Amino acid sequence: MQLSIRELAKRYKTGDGVSGINIEIEKGELVTLLGPSGCGKTTVLRSIGGFLEPDSGDILIEGQSVIQLPPEKRPTSMVFQSYNLWSHMSVYDNLAFGLKIRKMPKAEIRAAVDEALKLVRLSGFEKKYPAELSGGQQQRVALARSLLLKPAVLLLDEPFSALDAKLRHEMREELREIQMKTGLTMVFVTHDQEEALSLSDRIIVMNHGRIEQIAKPQEIYDAPASLYVASFIGKMNFLEGVAEEGSIRIGKLRLPNDKDLRGRITAAVRPEDVQLGEQIVGDNILPGKIKQVMILGHYAEVTVELAEFGIIRAFQSKEVVQHMQSGQEVGVCISKAAGFPVEQAKAI
Ligand SMILES: Nc1ncnc2c1ncn2[C@@H]1O[C@H](COP(=O)(O)OP(=O)(O)OP(=O)(O)O)[C@@H](O)[C@H]1O
């Protein structure tokens, strides 16, 4: 394993912190720590980088414990949201600095800086100063500076959150390219679920200082491990239901139940698993009334008020909703639901 985190715990004086953190990351993986503000992502990342001393637990990189080492002795490098470039130094000097300290010969430094700038698409920017660069360019320089140090694990703390949406998208793609070219292991912190879903090999979803789920993006989306993950990732409907052996009941609808759950549950239903039709009576149909139809490119988001269950949202193709309008009665079918114990709703 490239990076192993074992039973990491850190409690601040305020009582906040993280506990029971166990993570195994393979070489070349890009893993994101995802969760809302205050859930403990930065605490985990800083512990890996050595900027923060955990109360207990161990961190191993390439099989060696690094827990006793200061940040500069660890085989890690951190990219911060705020870039942290030296404003009085040119791009070249910002990049060369760490290598000069390591006493690398001048010619080698030049070659390494050239290569790093090429990787972040900033060849020719050597003589510029940080103030002459855009936010995205400054972040690319910061990234190049970290890459130059050839860390075993690159740590990225919300590196793109200061950038506008378009640039953020571009930077994600560039980071993915860099990962493919270098095969570098990366741990990326974000509170943006879209960023995590589009970037990661695996996502670690955190909540209140604990890990809720570690899985590939598709699995996190299709099979959330808890109601919290279900509510945090993607759009989701929540309906009251009852779980029995082999089935989940939502009113008169019966859906397969693949979990060992019984009794009252909260059923989570993705909008793409809701179908609308003109037929409003039937065994597998819940009656409802359309509240709103919103066309978004090739599909439409339709909001329906169900007689017994309140609001449900459905993603439909544009063709299906062509003749639908607000106030119209519709039949609602659900093809798939995941049940969660009702108590989990309190933990969100
Ligand atoms: N130095 C500190 N002293 C006391 N409490 C702290 C300290 N640093 C963090 N905390 C608290 O610990 C919890 C976890 O913080 P952390 O910064 O790890 O969360 P985060 O998920 O990275 O949040 P954000 O996305 O806002 O950076 C929060 O409740 C925070 O207020």
UniProtKB/TrEMBL annotation:
SUPFAM superfamilies according to UniProt: MOP-like (SSF50331), P-loop containing nucleoside triphosphate hydrolases (SSF52540)
Pfam families xref list: ABC_tran (PF00005), TOBE_2 (PF08402)
Entries under Gene3D superfamilies matching the protein: 2.40.50.100, Nucleic acid-binding proteins, P-loop containing nucleotide triphosphate hydrolases
UniProt keyword Transport present: yes
UniProt keyword Lyase present: no
Entries under SMART domains matching the protein: AAA (SM00382)
One GO MF term: ATP binding
Domain (ABC transporter) ranges: 3-233
InterPro entries: AAA+_ATPase, ABC_SmlMolc_Importer, ABC_transporter-like_ATP-bd, ABC_transporter-like_CS, Mo/tungstate-bd_C_term_dom, NA-bd_OB-fold, P-loop_NTPase, Transp-assoc_OB_typ2
Keywords associated with the record: ATP-binding, Nucleotide-binding, Transport
Protein name from the UniProt record: ABC transporter ATP-binding protein
